[in-house]
Fold this sequence. Notes:
The chain has 151 residues and is α+β, with helices and mostly antiparallel strands. The chain folds into 2 domains: 1-31, no CATH class; 34-79 and 90-129, Immunoglobulin-like (Sandwich), CATH 2.60.40.790. The protein has helices spanning 7-12, 17-28, 141-150, and strands at residues 37-41, 46-52, 61-66, 69-74, 97-102, 107-115, 118-125. The radius of gyration is 25 Å and the shape is elongated.
Amino acid sequence: MQTYDFSPFYRSTVGFDRVFNxxxxxxxxxxxxxxxxxxxxxxxxxxxxxxxxxxxxNGDIAVETKENSLVVKGARPxxxxxxxxEFLHRGIAERAFELRFQLADYVEVTGANLENGLLHLExxxxxxxxxxxxxxQINGGSAAIEDKSVN
Length: 151
């Protein structure tokens, strides 16, 4: 695994330390391979995370958001051991999992749908009105010049 030195960025930027701290923490994390998932862009500010959750039902999965973090947990109830199921081959894991995703500012989960063994999480980035670009009207420049020329 390759490591990155972000110290040159710390010397030349102000207010971006949180971004570099996140990158530092992500570099050290082990890549999660279970369950498999996709992250796709579905629009300018819309995203979808699709997680393969074969064998899990709605009640077995919990989706939580807190601040800029999204956590998806899945756990099947313990098998009661009644012996009704005898596997000759068990290829569907159905083991407990926990996936964590860091969300950018103003990204929120807008919906979740479990369909055909895939959990689809819809995300949207919505800037508050105070953060959107706006045009400022400039007043008084031409009217004041006209008044001075009349005198």
